[in-house]
Amino acid sequence: MVKTGESTDVEERPKWDNKIQYLLTCIGFAVGLGNVWRFPYLCQIYGGGAFLIPYLIALVFEGLPLLYMELAIGQRLRKGSVGVWNSISPYLGGVGISCMLVSFLVGVFYNTILAWVLWYFFHSFQEPLPWSQCPLNVNHTGYNEECVASTPVNYFWYRETLDITADIGISDSPRWWMVICLATAWSVVYICLIRGIDTIGKAVYVTSTLPYLVLTIFLIRALTLPGATDGLIYLFTPDVSSLVNPQVWLDAATQIFFSLSVAFGGLIAFSSYNPEKNDCERDAVAVGVINSATSLYASIPIFAILGFKARSNYNTCLNQYVNVLVLTNHFEISDQNITVENYDHWLGYLNASFPDEVSSLKNIRTCNLQTFLDQSASGTGLAFIVFTEAVIEMPGSQVWAILFFIMLFSLGLSSMFGTIEGIVTPLIDLKVVPKQIPNELVTGTSVVCLISFLMALVFTLGSGNYWVEIFSSYVGSVPLLIIAVFEIVGVSYIYGMKRFGEDILFMTGRRPNIFWRACWTFISPLLLKGVLIAYVIVQAQKYPSYPAWNPDYEFFPQTQMKPYPNWVFAIIVLLCVLPVISIPLVALYRLILCGLQRKSSNVRPNPYVNDGYTGETA
Amino acid sequence: MLGKTLFLLCLASALSEPLCLKDTSDGYKVRISIKTALGDEAYEWNENEMFLFRATLAFAMRRYFNREDFNVSSILVCDETPRVSFWFVVVSPQNASQLIDKADVENAIRMSRHRINSAFLLTDSTLEFIGIPPTYAAPVNPATPPWLIVFGVVMGAVCAGIIGLLVSTVLKKKGLTEDENDEEEAQDKAVENGIACEDLDGVYNRAFPDDERLTKM
Lengths: 618, 217
Hints:
The structure holds two protein chains of two kinds. By secondary structure, chain A is an all-alpha fold. Chain A has helices at 19-30, 33-37, 39-45, 52-77, 81-88, 93-123, 145-149, 152-161, 176-193, 197-207, 210-223, 228-236, 246-259, 266-272, 280-319, 321-331, 343-353, 355-360, 369-374, 380-393, 397-429, 444-456, 464-475, 478-508, 514-541, 566-599, and strands spanning 545-548, 560-563. Chain A has two domains: 19-321 and 365-602, Amino acid/polyamine transporter I; 322-364, no CATH class. In chain A, 67% of the residues lie in helices and 1% in strands. The longest helix of chain A is centred in the middle third of the chain and has 40 residues, at 280-319. Chain A is elongated. Helices cover 46% and strands 10% of the residues of chain B. Chain B has helices at 2-16, 34-38, 47-65, 102-111, 113-119, 146-189, and strands at 28-32, 75-81, 85-90, 127-130. Chain A: Na(+) binds at residues 28, 30-31, 35, 259, 291, 411, 415.
């Protein structure tokens, strides 16, 4: 077998210092924000423990084969994604370019989320926490009305952090505080990537291990909080009947897929720096299993804390102090005659004597623990609204807030490494940008970080959050699925399972067993195609709309569902199509080139065929 | 004479009745929660306390208008309930049938709110004037918001790191170019060996490429 496309660099390819760095980097790339704020939510809404069944099936038949494949081809062909796919087949060169484009678009919005995390982190040093109380209004006669109508936590997120507008069409101007947080986030990413895998390898010692430490601390603390068991029971109680719903299987498959960060090109880039004879099968299984285990491990403290929050909200509601006041004031009963203890007795008496008046009182609240437990959220809602509210109630809130946001930042940062490396490595291999320092001063990393930062300024506008939602729903989903389908079909059928098997034999010393071969050839491509089609159908069924934060909405503080305007819809379609358009374009281009070459005479010598030597090459 | 006085008094009292009404547009409702505020040390609300209240309000009006003609009789109270809540209106000391404007009453109360509260050992939330929101104390606003300080620390550290790494790269490159210059000079000098100088140039060996300044170690 011939090693195709070996570039004749003057310098060697950079190498990992040791295997631990490589594994930590891959794990850090795979373990990201989604493990903490998407998986527990899915577990909760899809019947708790029962969700693990489709999740694990998807891991074994979809996630691990894809992961193993990417690590293997990167390690064997020793190039970034563009070079790898050009080597596998010139017609598949577009897949590498797609990987790069998707990585770029995802990197731009993902780091904006990290900028938000940084903003909360900076504010966690304040005493008392700024999201625990409403600010006063202009003439100091009361609290700010928008804050009173919603909650202080919501107000801090929507007004003081994002300063969000009521509609995606209203852009307003960039928020200066967000711009400087964004600059900080990109500077941190840049300094960690400044010398390529030298600095990445050192940074991941911290960024990949810190989340586990913090999760353990939170676990210990959370389990001692009252109400923790409510949350855990609620999370893990299996409801096997939910498995009948096909949406559950679809969400499990997509969650595994996006969680493992395949099809970004970052994993290919990382494994290309490995020595050739490295057991990538063990690496792949390790990374995949650790990623899923982390999701499970993270969901325990998250839900314990959410249970605690539900319990304390319920207790506050039960305290009924507000209800006591309402009754006392309305019926002019002597002060402190109605107390929390005899409230029910009084309520019964008043209800019997003046039923009309009692039912007209709007401020009487009924309390139900289940409704508080159902107030779950995923994504930014979980981190910045629900969790921050829970942290206020915990004693020593600053410490917990600081720990939580540092953990989120490390999780996101290690994922950013893979995303940016997925862009920079192929560009360096193609010699489009200068190499990493210490060779050059202005490197590919600085160019990519600068351009991404400038593009991300869009997300600091008033409508920025709406755009981040668009990017995360549409860029980070369908294009990746399409790329993955092409990847697995390309390796299994175009590169050939026989050749791939021999490559693996060379690298690990044994051929892939029947399970891997069956997965790569039949099961995974079928699963992926099914997931892609189902996903597109589900998305296409409803006209896309978004939840807008509109203080003038009649049902405020509920968010108002608005449909996307046409021009936004056009941008969405563009975002889905643009990354993957390069696949057919490059294939077409090569076809035309090949056709033209065949038409002209074969004067150009083929550098791979040297007629000076007879006989076969091994 | 007596009859006339009686008649006038009755007329006066009859006329004053409609001035203070529940839900009147020129008065305010007061709600007092003594037990909530003082717990065990709560005093009982009686006529004397009401007298003190009227006197305090008269004081507030005096202070606001800077006149010394308001009296306890200028404050009319009605619709008392066991909650301890009641309505009051303020009449002008010159003309007993003319009410003082609601806005003036509000401003007067606002001005002396703290004194009124202190007279009864109560607070803004336990001595409520329905319709007159309390003025909250301005929150403590430090000159630099604390988050900017943390941001400055983090950004400063990161920038220092970036500049440090870039500078060390530049220095390394300068050091390398200096070494290369030294090597070239040594080659040009072509001595040391003591052998005849003409042969030191040697024959140029084309097997080795010329453009590699640095050989791999």
